[in-house]
């Protein structure tokens, strides 16, 4: 069964239609890249999946559970949204680390706050917090920041900040990790370290959706690619097919332009 | 001489009390007012903004008089107990309302400059609104508002002497008793009390700024 199923997702801001009916599904362990020119709705799609925007139409199912159905108001209650978000993680283009916390604190803050809702939190507080601490350290080690645990964001380079952001998103063990142009705010020579971190996750079969302008990266890390145009999926398929022999004219033109 | 100094201290104690009480109540009230002015419920936001406009747009001295004398003169039961305590209570209420409005604008400025991404990062990490405000936003807001807050607090120190308009026996009122006897020295020396207090506030604000220097916003 697909881990994620999106059906006919629509979003408009006032009179402007940004998503015009997006449908796709994702298997566990798949890496989906979403490409397309700016304004094609890629970012809005990710923001809808993470409930930062409320879709105007369509459905979102994760692991068979309906998280959102525009036709069913009971799926849109504010109270439930917070829990539903936890199925997804989101890494922002601009990192959005919390400046007053160290790298490690950035990673452990949300798990610590969530742990308070656990039933055994009172009895086992010390053990739970120690586990979160350890988990946070090991996540930062995984993204190559073992020596930066106690650095503040402003002391880190953009690439390091983005890797902290990846560790922070992983700390909540999301089913699907989303990246919104993770390297667009970085110098080309620094993007490499972030892309390597994402590639490592792909090798560990993390289910991911990556909105990116790095065509080379999309080509060799993803199992499937979606090309968006005008709020619709214009073309979809394995990377070899999409990049090797694009069918639509729009995609051909797009690939020409970004090359 | 010693008597004069003691009397002036007695007066300055009123200034200090008024200062402390105003800060204690106006800071949280200012935060609440700032939330009101940023409310998505437009009628509330406009009502709050109008209120802030009125309070910031009229003299504090006028507000002191109206709050102290108004209820009695308008035929309501006078809420202020007789004597010095009643006057200080009235002064405190006027100061709290007035300063809360100024603080609310500083808070609003501070909150609105925090990038939206901070809030969204908290949201996607499953934090509640309350957690985002207290764990993510608040300290960043505080860091940003320390300098304008310092200004406002220094103004408050000196404004406390306005309370003498409703006969709170604050330090300048005390000193004026001596000018009536032909002594100017006490009046001059009240300045020293204010200078010392503002000096201490300035040091404290500087300390706060250094304390928050460990991160950048």
How many domains, in number, for the residues of chain B? 1
Total strands of chain B: the figure is 0
Range of strand content of chain A? 15-25%
Q: How many helical stretches of chain B? A: 8
Strand order of the largest sheet of chain A: 6-7-8-3-9-10
What topology emerges from the helices and strands here?
The complex is a heterodimer of chains A (259) and B (217).
Chain A: E1 4-13, E2 16-26, E3 31-35, H1 42-49, E4 57-62, E5 65-69, H2 78-85, E6 88-91, H3 103-115, H4 121-142, H5 158-170, E7 176-180, H6 188-203, E8 208-211, H7 215-221, E9 224-229, E10 232-237, H8 239-244, H9 249-258
Parallel strand pairs in A: 3-8, 3-9, 6-7, 7-8
Antiparallel strand pairs in A: 1-2, 1-4, 4-5, 9-10
Helix pairs in contact in A: 3-4, 3-5, 4-5, 5-6
Chain B: H1 2-37, H2 42-57, H3 60-73, H4 84-112, H5 116-124, H6 129-159, H7 171-179, H8 185-211
Give the key terms.
heterodimer; A: 259 residues; alpha/beta; four-stranded antiparallel sheet; 9 helices; 10 strands; globular; B: 217 residues; mainly alpha; MetI-like fold
């Amino acid at each position: 069964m697909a881990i994620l199923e999106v059906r006919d997702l629509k979003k408009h801001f006032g009179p402007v239609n940004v998503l015009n009916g997006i449908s796709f599904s994702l298997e566990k362990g798949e890496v989906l890249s979403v490409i397309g020119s700016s304004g094609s709705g890629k970012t809005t799609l990710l923001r809808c999946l993470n409930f930062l925007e409320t879709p105007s139409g369509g459905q979102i199912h994760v692991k068979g559970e309906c998280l959102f159905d525009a036709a069913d108001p009971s799926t849109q209650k504010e109270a439930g949204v917070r829990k539903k978000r936890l199925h997804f993680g989101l890494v922002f283009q601009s990192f959005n680390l919390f400046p007053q916390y160290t790298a490690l604190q950035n990673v452990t803050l949300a798990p610590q706050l969530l742990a308070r809702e656990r039933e055994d939190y009172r009895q086992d507080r010390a053990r739970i917090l120690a586990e979160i601490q350890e988990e946070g350290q090991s996540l930062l080690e995984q993204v190559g920041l073992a020596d930066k645990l106690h650095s503040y964001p402003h002391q880190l380079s953009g690439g390091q900040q983005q890797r902290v952001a990846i560790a922070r998103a992983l700390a909540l063990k999301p089913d699907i990790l989303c990246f919104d142009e993770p390297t667009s705010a970085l110098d080309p020579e620094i993007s490499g370290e972030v892309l390597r971190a994402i590639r490592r996750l792909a090798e560990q079969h993390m289910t991911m959706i990556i909105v990116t302008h790095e065509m080379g990266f999309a080509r060799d890390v993803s199992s499937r690619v979606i090309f968006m145009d005008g709020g619709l999926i214009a073309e979809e398929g394995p990377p070899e097919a999409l990049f090797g022999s694009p069918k639509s004219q729009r995609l051909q033109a797009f690939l020409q332009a970004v090359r | 001489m010693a008597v004069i100094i003691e009397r002036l201290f007695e007066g300055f104690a009123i200034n200090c009390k008024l200062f402390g009480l105003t800060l204690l109540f106006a800071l949280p009230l200012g935060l609440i007012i700032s939330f009101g002015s940023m409310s998505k419920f437009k009628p509330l936001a406009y009502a709050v903004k109008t209120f802030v406009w009125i309070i910031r747009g009229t003299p504090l001295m006028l507000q002191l008089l109206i709050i102290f004398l108004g209820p009695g003169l308008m035929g309501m039961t006078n809420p202020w107990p007789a004597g010095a305590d009643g006057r200080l209570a009235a002064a405190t209420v006027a100061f709290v309302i007035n300063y809360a409005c100024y603080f609310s604008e500083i808070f609003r400025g501070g909150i609105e400059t925090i990038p939206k991404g901070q809030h969204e990062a908290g949201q996607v990490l499953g934090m509640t609104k309350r957690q985002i405000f207290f764990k993510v936003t608040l300290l960043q807001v505080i860091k940003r508002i320390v300098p304008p807050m310092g200004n406002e607090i220094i103004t408050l120190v000196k404004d406390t002497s306005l309370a003498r308009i409703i006969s709170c026996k604050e330090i300048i009122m005390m000193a004026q008793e001596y000018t009536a006897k032909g002594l100017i020295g006490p009046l001059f020396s009240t300045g020293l009390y204010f200078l010392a207090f503002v000096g201490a506030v300035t040091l404290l604000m500087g300390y706060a700024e250094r304390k928050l220097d460990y991160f950048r916003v």
